[in-house]
Model the fold of this input.
Amino acid sequence: MNNVVDYYSSFWEREWTRLDREPLEFKINWHYIRKYLPVSGSVLDIGAGPGKYSIELAKNGYMVTLADLTPSLVDLARQKATELGLLQQFHGFHVADARDLSPFPDKGFDACLMLGPLYHLQTDEDRTSAVQELHRVTKNGGFVFAAFRSRTNHIMSSLAAPENWKPHDTFDAIHDFFQTGIFNHNDKGRFTGAYFYHVDEIKPFMESFGFLTVQLIGSTNIGATLTPDQWRYWQDRGEEEKVTELLIETAADPALLGMSSHLLYIGKKQ
Done:
């Protein structure tokens, strides 16, 4: 996983602002996370990055344990929590691999977030290890929130802007990706290697490890297809929030899931 650490270490400060620059994903995810979280309790944020979701959880009174593979992002999360006066809401900031959560106890958390690791793990074995660990650390009846990347969306992006997604500047490479879901960017310093999922494989995958599916939503859905100029039109009309509310309302529509750049699986440990 050195490539993942190297990728995120190269622009760790920029990662903190990513969800500010692209707020739709966070707004939709947070709506559904709050919908299913218990009123209070302990939450483990696995693959937390610089801690955007952890900070929001802490602001809302949850006791948060943060874990990420990249040391500089863990340090940044601790810094942000300190600056915001939220350290008392954290049980720790850990450098940890989603495939090995041995620092954390069995059934130790009321809810768990895994909003990055599963699409950075390119082998079945690694993804299996991560979900088994997710299951182990979650209390019986606890909710989990896991992020996936859509294979359909990435094909759309590759066909629309092939020069941005090399080696997807050739049809054969795109077709091969359609079969495997594995993407490794040719351009040094661009998006790290990832695994993109067919929408219909997500629920069976998670259910095979003992989770009961509650909902699968598109974190960006229709919004993923809108250009900056198109978004600007609704902003200039003062109706951006109404559009966002519509996207929250349609996030669970099965017909729209594939077009979403990110998907959020919501499950319950049986």
